Structures are given as structure tokens and as C-alpha cells.
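pls design
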């Protein structure tokens, strides 16, 4: 059975319900999602929670529906989480990434609903060539829209989302609007600097092609003039066809590819098999869907910089 795609078991669901919404950081405290003396924000998964905390600062109490190390795409939230969602002041989520979250948000009476997907431009991506990212193979909502949700891996789009979140916070909690505005400006400035680091760091490389098991880097590839080749769609643990393996081996030789990338939260078996057959190395390229002890960094920026270094090494940056 594919562990990455395995639905949360009944035991895990019961544990999740018993614990309620997991807190993101120490400053979030141990209280439930709603009814605190701060602006209570429920975030769907790490990239949304990071924005909420950076922009909200001390004025917000942020909780995440997705626990550290939990694969976010297949999250099934509990009844208790849904009830606690109702008690919060705002929810920040990315529509079409987590269907159970979409359903809970749609049914909730929470006043401030912030859909990150509506705050920037999304594109349709395929699973190969030209900075393309795969559609989520077993998620009907994403397949029906055909839009790639991995916007947070592009610092420019992530900054656009941050600006929209900041404005939403200002409107929903006007008493702290000035601080939200200042925090948003500081975050956008840091994201702009990160964008410049990627632009400069990837401007002169021996090859522009990289191979991944998780086709999450379409926007990043597109932003910096790279080409992402996904082994077999989104799922890094699925077995690629013999034809796809042969195609990748041929492409690797032609384009000077040195490395097959995999992510921290799933098995590297497929990546290592492909790499071994093609005489390539393996390394981590983190989609930053969650931060764990295995992550190369403790927040969005440190992991992105680790990704940049990995890409520079693999692509032969000069």
C-alpha cells in the first residue's frame, strides 16, 4: 500500500480528535483554535500557517489543521476540528489542495475565509518539460480545475498571497491593522530578497533541467527559467513505466542531468532506483508542505535556501 496516499486511519483520526487542532508554534499556546484573547486563525497546512504567524505576529493565535510530518493532500479533518473551526475568527487555506478542508470551510459560518488561491494567479501544468508540474493524480477537485496549487514555492507568488492575507487581516481585525501592514511589508521584502537570491544563484548553470519524484516545482522552475521533469506525476512512491524510465535516462544524458530529487516525507526508493539505473546521484528538494526534524531548516526561508543550494549543485551553477 502506498503510505503517502494512505488515508488517516480510524485510530489516528480518534487521536486527532482527542488532541484537537495542533498548535503550530510555542507562541500559539496550547489552547483550542477559538475563544482566545487574540485574533484566532486556523491555517490549513504549513505554508498558510507560516504566513499567518509572520503577518499576525503577537496579535494572532495560529493553529494548523495539518500536523508536522503529515502529508497534507489527503488530510481528513475530524468532527472536533470542524467544530473548532467554527469558533475561530479566520481561516486561511488553499482551495483545491485539501478537499476535506474545502468542505469544512464551505459549511462553516466563520466570518473571514481567506483562500490563498484567489490572491495570485494559478496555472495549468503538465507532468513534464518546461517547468511543468503534475496535476494531483487522485484528487478530483484539482483534476477538474487542472490548476497547480504549489504557489508557495515561487517567492513572487507567495509574496502576492502575503499581501492579500495582510489586507484580509487588516479588515478583519482593524485594531491591529497598522502592525499587520508593517509585518506584511517586512515579509514581502524578505520574499523579494529570496527571489533575487534564486535569480542570481540560478542565472548561470550548466543545465536547466532537473528531475523530481514530486512534481511540485513547476512555478519555481518557470520563475527561474528551469525545466522540471517529474518521474511519474505527483506521487513519488508510484512506480514509473519502463517507457518513462527510458525517456528520463535519454533526457538525462542529453541535458546533462546529474541528480534525481526526492522529498523528505516519503521513501527515496523510486528516486534511488532511477538514479542507479541512469548513473545519477540523489538529493532532497523539499516541497515545504510541512516542517519536521528531517527538514533542511526550521522555516520556509531556511528550507528554500537549502533548496536553492541543492539546485545549484545539481545544475552546475557557476
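designed seq:
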Amino acid at each position: 500500500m502506498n503510505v503517502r496516499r494512505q488515508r488517516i486511519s480510524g485510530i489516528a483520526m480518534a487521536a486527532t480528535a482527542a488532541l484537537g487542532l495542533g498548535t503550530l508554534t510555542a507562541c500559539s499556546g496550547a489552547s483550542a483554535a477559538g475563544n482566545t484573547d487574540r485574533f484566532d486563525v486556523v491555517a490549513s497546512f504549513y505554508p498558510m500557517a507560516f504566513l499567518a504567524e509572520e503577518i499576525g505576529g503577537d496579535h494572532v493565535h495560529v493553529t494548523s489543521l495539518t500536523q508536522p510530518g503529515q502529508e497534507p493532500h489527503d488530510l481528513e479533518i475530524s468532527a472536533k476540528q470542524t467544530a473548532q473551526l467554527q469558533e475561530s475568527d479566520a481561516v486561511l487555506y488553499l482551495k483545491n489542495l485539501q478537499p476535506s478542508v474545502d468542505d469544512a470551510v464551505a459549511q462553516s459560518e466563520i466570518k473571514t475565509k481567506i483562500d490563498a488561491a484567489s490572491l495570485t494567479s494559478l496555472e495549468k501544468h503538465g507532468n513534464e518539460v518546461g517547468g511543468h508540474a503534475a496535476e494531483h493524480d487522485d484528487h478530483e477537485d484539482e483534476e477538474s480545475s487542472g490548476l497547480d496549487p504549489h504557489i508557495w514555492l515561487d517567492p513572487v507568488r507567495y509574496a502576492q498571497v502575503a499581501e492579500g492575507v495582510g489586507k484580509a487581516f487588516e479588515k478583519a481585525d482593524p485594531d491591529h491593522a497598522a502592525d499587520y501592514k508593517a509585518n506584511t511589508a517586512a515579509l514581502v521584502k524578505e520574499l523579494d530578497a529570496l527571489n533575487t537570491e534564486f535569480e542570481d544563484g540560478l542565472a548561470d548553470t550548466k543545465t536547466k533541467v532537473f528531475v523530481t519524484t514530486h512534481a511540485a516545482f513547476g512555478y519555481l522552475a518557470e520563475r527561474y527559467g528551469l525545466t522540471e521533469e517529474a518521474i511519474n506525476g505527483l506521487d513519488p512512491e508510484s512506480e514509473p513505466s519502463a517507457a518513462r524510465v527510458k525517456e528520463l535516462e535519454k533526457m538525462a544524458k542529453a541535458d546533462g542531468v546529474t541528480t534525481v530529487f526526492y522529498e523528505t516525507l516519503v521513501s527515496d526508493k523510486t528516486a534511488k532506483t532511477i538514479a542507479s539505473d541512469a548513473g545519477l546521484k540523489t538529493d532532497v528538494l523539499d516541497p515545504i508542505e510541512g516542517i519536521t526534524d528531517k527538514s533542511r531548516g526550521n522555516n520556509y526561508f531556511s528550507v528554500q535556501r537549502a533548496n536553492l543550494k541543492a539546485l545549484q549543485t545539481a545544475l552546475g551553477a557557476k
